[in-house]
């Protein structure tokens, strides 16, 4: 019993595999036939929602996209049926300028099946159905997640199907997205009758011709043999012409289909080439702009560096010149010690002569000149020198008139080291000491400081 059960299971499995393979082959074959039928019909009339060829093609495409599509698992572990729109939404989201959002926002389309049918019509009008299918097939991970083993979308035939759909880009479709064709409650039914064809062999054709001759001869017994032969020959010629016309028509349609496919393929390749060329030009332009901006920035930086170097050089020169001028100014303003000592000795001498009575007009003129010279150097003395000179001058006491003057007091005159003495030189002529050279002036006593 166990072996019998295993055998039945193997038979069922083989039957399921065979039925799946047959279903795949039938769907792909009928899909190719429907594409050819649409191409032939588009040569004579506009394809819209009412065209039976289009309705049949949409039904076939829905069956192809729904073939072995996995169900959606609910919270309770059951699988609910799913439409191919969920797969298209997940796999075609990266297609540039896609229409998924616009279809999702349509008010009259609610169900998932209706959205899928609206998507088919929109991409056919945009002439991008093959592009969407090819993009979805490239996302193999998402395709594997939505479809079971043996599905058409997981097989090698899916790529051939996408190439077959390129021919539909030559057709100008016109649809109304508010019609009854978007009703998601109606299932998609395939009509196989347009694709069923009975092929008659040569023997059958000859037997039919003999039968027609026999029927013609029996029906026209009164006619002469010449007329019978003429009618048979005319019928044969007409049948031959009809068969030839059908063959030529078939060849013409095949050539027209191939021509449309090649034209669409060339147009697609030209569009890709033009896009690549424009992208390349944009990259080259960006590179040139970047190089130009880099060059300009480099030149600006070099100019700024040179300008800063020039400014630094000018500042260094100005600083050096200012230092030199300040040093020279300080050097010129500060009196030398030799000049101070010489002026002080000369003033001491004149004061000593005055005190001893050796005063004359020439000495007075020398005293004025010496006072003028020392007044020039008055401003260059430091305050500490000024204070020390004033202290020494105030500490000096003049002797009384009746005190005897001795030569030993000469060395006690000291040297002029105070600014007070310089200031007093300008007023010596009008003071009590220098009122007149002939006036009798009492000599002050000089005490050592």
Automatic annotation (TrEMBL):
Matching CDD domains, A to Z? Answer: RUN_RUNDC3B
InterPro entries named among the record's database cross-references = Run_dom, Run_dom_sf, RUN_RUNDC3B, RUNDC3A_B
Q: Where is this region: Disordered?
A: 206-227
Task: Give coiled-coil spans as residue ranges.
Answer: none
SMART domains under this entry? RUN (SM00593)
Q: What Pfam families does UniProt report for this protein, alphabetically? A: RUN (PF02759)
Q: Which keywords label this protein?
A: Coiled coil
Keyword Coiled coil attached: yes
Question: Which segments constitute the RUN domain?
Answer: 48-180
Q: Does the keyword Ligase apply?
A: no
Q: Per the record, where are the segments of Polar residues compositional bias? A: 215-227
Please state which protein family the record places this protein in.
Belongs to the RUNDC3 family.
Q: What is this protein called?
A: RUN domain-containing protein 3B
Q: Which organism is it from?
A: Seriola lalandi dorsalis
């Amino acid at each position: 019993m166990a072996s019998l059960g295993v055998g039945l299971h193997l038979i069922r499995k083989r039957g399921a595999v065979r039925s799946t393979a047959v279903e795949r082959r039938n769907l792909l074959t009928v899909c190719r036939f429907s594409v050819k039928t649409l191409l032939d019909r588009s040569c004579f009339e506009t394809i819209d929602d009412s065209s039976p060829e289009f309705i049949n093609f949409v039904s076939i495409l829905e069956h192809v996209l729904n073939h072995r599509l996995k169900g959606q698992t609910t919270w309770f572990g059951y699988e609910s049926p799913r439409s191919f729109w969920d797969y298209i939404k997940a796999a075609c989201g990266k297609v540039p300028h896609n229409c998924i959002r616009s279809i999702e926002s349509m008010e009259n389309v609610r169900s998932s099946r209706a959205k899928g049918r609206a998507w088919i019509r929109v991409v056919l009008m945009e002439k991008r159905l093959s592009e969407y299918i090819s993009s979805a097939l490239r996302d193999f991970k998402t395709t594997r997640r939505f479809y079971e083993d043996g599905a058409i979308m997981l097989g090698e035939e899916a790529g051939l199907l996408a190439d077959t759909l390129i021919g539909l880009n030559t057709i100008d479709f016109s649809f109304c997205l508010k019609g009854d064709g978007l009703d998601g409650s109606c299932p998609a039914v395939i009509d196989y009758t347009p694709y069923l064809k009975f092929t008659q062999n040569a023997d059958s054709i000859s037997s039919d011709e003999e039968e027609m001759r026999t029927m013609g001869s029996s029906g026209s017994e009164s006619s002469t043999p010449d007329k019978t032969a003429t009618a048979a020959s005319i019928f044969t010629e007409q049948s031959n012409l009809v068969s030839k016309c059908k063959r030529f028509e078939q060849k013409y349609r095949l050539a027209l289909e191939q021509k449309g496919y090649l034209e669409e393929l060339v147009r697609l390749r030209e569009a890709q080439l033009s896009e690549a060329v424009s992208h390349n030009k944009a990259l080259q332009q960006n590179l040139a702009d970047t190089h130009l901006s880099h060059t300009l920035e480099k030149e600006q930086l070099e100019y700024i560096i040179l300008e800063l170097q020039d400014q630094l050089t000018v500042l260094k020169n100005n600083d050096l010149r200012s230092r030199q001028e300040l040093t020279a100014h300080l050097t010129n303003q500060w009196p030398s010690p030799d000049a101070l000592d010489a002026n002080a000795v000369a003033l001491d001498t004149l004061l000593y002569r005055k005190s001893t009575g050796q005063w004359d007009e020439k000495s007075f003129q020398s005293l004025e000149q010496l006072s003028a010279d020392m007044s020039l150097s008055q401003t260059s003395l430091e305050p500490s020198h000024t204070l020390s000179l004033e202290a020494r001058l105030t500490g000096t006491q003049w002797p009384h008139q009746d005190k005897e003057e001795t030569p030993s007091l000469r060395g006690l005159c000291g040297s002029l080291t105070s600014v007070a003495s310089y200031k007093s030189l300008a007023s010596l002529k009008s003071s009590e000491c220098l009122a007149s050279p002939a006036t009798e002036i009492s000599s002050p006593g000089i005490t050592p400081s």
